[in-house]
Each structure stands twice: as C-alpha cells, then as structure tokens.
Amino acid sequence: MSAALQVTAFGLALLSTLFLLLATCTDCWMVNADDSLEVSHKCRGLWRECVTNMQDGVRTCDQYDSILADHPVKIVVTRTLMITADLLASLALATLLLGLDCITFLKEDPCAKLKMCYGAGVILGAGSILGLIGSVWYAVDVYVERAMLVSHNIFLGVHYDFGWSCWLGMAGSTGCFVASVLLTCCLY
C-alpha cells in the first residue's frame, strides 16, 4: 500500500510540477475576451505580450524591456512566487524520487527513505502554496483591474480575462498540494 501511494504521489507531483513550469514560461496569463469583432487575439504573460492575427495566423510578441525594469506589481510578485514554487517543486520531486521504495538508493535504511518522502511532501506543500498564491494573486488583480474600469465607465476597447497559463498555474499548484497531503498525511 505504501509503495502504491508513493508512486501515485510521485506521478501527481511530476505532472503538477510540469504544469507549474509551463505556466511560468508561457505567455497567456491574460487573454482578450472581446467577441468576434476583433481581428487579433492578445495574450499577456509574465515575460512578454503576444498578438495573433486571426486572419492569417501570424503571431508577434513584444518582450518586456528587462527583468529589472519598472513593471506592475502583479507581474513582479507573480514572477517571484512562481519561480520559487517551480524551484521548490523540482527540489521536492528529486527528493521524492530518491525516497521511493522502488529506488535502490538507501535501500538498507527504510526509515531514512520514509523521512525523505515526508520531507519532499513538506517542500512540495510549501511550493504549492506559493504557486497558488501567485496564480490567484494575478487572477484577482486582473479581476480588480477590470472591475475598476467598469465602475468608472472606462472602455479601452480591450477586455481581458484569465488565460490558460493562469489556470495551468492553479491546476499545477493544486496537484502539488494534493501530492503533498498524500505524502505527509496518508503515508504514515
């Protein structure tokens, strides 16, 4: 039972870590949500903004000036939280891999392997919380920005909603959290 639970948690952690990495690297955190009158599809990410022409499919991207340049707080905070979540989830994944019962590393000391799995669960939980805070922070800021424009009757011609990268970050963080719960609560 313990080995099956470990392998299940490892598979979930691996998939969720990949989701977190993809969410951090991709550039569709915000997408324009206007109706079919638009001739282009706009995506804003943590690193650049892309526009795709709907008629011919040509995509052009403008990278933000510099990592150290003046950026909105939501981009800086989300970048920081997502990169930290990626690093913690990757560290937890490596630790969990070495702590699995089916791996021959430290085979003579099952107590140490169990501690490694538990430690990986704690690290994975910390990473999942940071990733979830980053994703939700960005989503709430998009919503507040849109609500402020609507409350002041300002229409800029572009209406943004949450993009698939934001949802991918939330899904990856939630998966890491579930794997953390499996490793810390259910393994013992």
Automatic annotation (TrEMBL):
It is found in: Cell junction, Tight junction; Cell membrane. One of its GO terms (molecular function) is structural molecule activity. It is a multi-pass membrane protein. This is Claudin. The gene is Cldn16_1. The lineage of its organism: Eukaryota, Metazoa, Chordata, Craniata, Vertebrata. It comes from Dryoscopus gambensis. Pfam families: PMP22_Claudin. GO terms for cellular component: bicellular tight junction; plasma membrane. Claudins function as major constituents of the tight junction complexes that regulate the permeability of epithelia. Residues 1-28 form the signal peptide.
